Amino acid sequence: MTGRTTFFISLFIALLAIVSPSKASPWVGTVDKQLHYDLQTLQEWGYLDATVITYPVPWRGVADQIMKLDIAKMPNIPKQAAQRLDHYLYLQKQQKRRTFLEIQGATSEPRLTSLDGVEDVKASVKITNEFYWQRFSAQLSVNYQSGGKKNLDNSFLAYQFGEWNLRAGAIDQWWGPGQSSSLILSNNARPIPTLALSRSSATRSESPWLSWLGPWYLTSQIGRLEEDRAVPNTNLLLNRFTFSPLKRLEIGASWAVMWGGEGNPSGLSALLDVVTFQEVCLRRESCTKDQLTKAGNHLAGYDIKYSFEVFNRPISIYAQRIGEDSKSGIRITDNANLVGLSTYIGNAKVYLETSDTNISCGGDDDTSVNCFYENGTYSSGYRYRNRVIGSTFDSDAKQLTLGTNIRFEGGALAEVILRVAELNKDGTRPSPVLTDAVTEDLVQVSGFYQRPFGNWLLKAGGSIESRDLVDQGSEVDALLYLNATYAFD
């Protein structure tokens, strides 16, 4: 294990040794992401008054609502979701520290991911400890992966003060209502180490000045990308605000900026130029007006989700629009879109979703592509360790996804996803998701079955994909994996 990793482990232990026990973890589903889907279910059925289109959602506020539910009188689908969340809250009250051992093995590394899909490694062993201490909380996750790799992904130390939470660490995040991916921030890439200031609740504020917003959530984060990229140690600023002015209506706004890094200004004045959208002269002694460039690489946009009932079943419609770059001022020209629809059939949630990152680079009158998630200054693009931070399909991709999440009695569940994607149609500047050709037509079916057995949570899954590769014919690839998690008493 590296000296840096050892240092952070020692820092966690030292900080946790000087404080005393607390009541709960700050966020829902940092170990079991299916709990986030349970929150969505309760919100869509009208049992939860909170904004849940940002993962992870804080426990504060939603926990009180869950404990007040009359679960016995609820329909089966939201009843199962409430029971799982209520059970997890019970465990948190009984234990001040929780430890998990997770083992995963796969026949190959997956290209496409989802919120609770297989991790992008062939084999891994993970030991996770959750600690709850008064206003402090922490999660220490030590990961050993195939090839001798080690990391502390999904570890954090957090401190709560009033309505706010300060967090240092690297945790999976997902911004937006999308079920198959997010255009601006998903867990497609490894979690980015950040320092984050966030509201500690996603429910209504007690302040009369803010009550008109309904439930709301805000997070602002600053992090640093890896050293092994075209511009080493690029900084990343992440901001998101969501609110729910009407029940079952959620609106979100996101803004991400890459700035600084080796060879570029990185101080406070440079950050001020970035957030005020100034034009600057980079890597030249002087610039003409045409050589000036906007400080930083900006991605920004909004998303919206609305749920309503038809024949006593929720139907949700949602959309996300994220733009990158602008011709002048803050007017965004390069806009990617995601739209979707979901409902419940029997014990299953079913969704249909499409997105398109194959967009023109200079607005509707420009036919050139190869620009979304790309940047002239930061030529590694909007990526972390060679995987895009946003959509799992990366740039220049059109996709249609049909998915279902089926719940069974006893806590078992299954997920099945059909994806049809057109990757890099023009064949130029292929993204890292293209591993064997410069363009590809893809049809993939993936899924898993998960079931608890005592202290074990077992998940078995796989995928099969038909790939039409330009000038290389077609091929069929398959992947199988097994994941086992043990929760120590």
TrEMBL record:
<dbReference type="InterPro" id="IPR026950">
    <property type="entry name" value="Caps_assemb_Wzi"/>
</dbReference>
<dbReference type="InterPro" id="IPR038636">
    <property type="entry name" value="Wzi_sf"/>
</dbReference>
<feature type="signal peptide">
    <location>
        <begin position="1"/>
        <end position="24"/>
    </location>
</feature>
<keyword id="KW-0732">Signal</keyword>
<dbReference type="Pfam" id="PF14052">
    <property type="entry name" value="Caps_assemb_Wzi"/>
</dbReference>
<protein>
    <submittedName>
        <fullName>Capsule assembly Wzi family protein</fullName>
    </submittedName>
</protein>
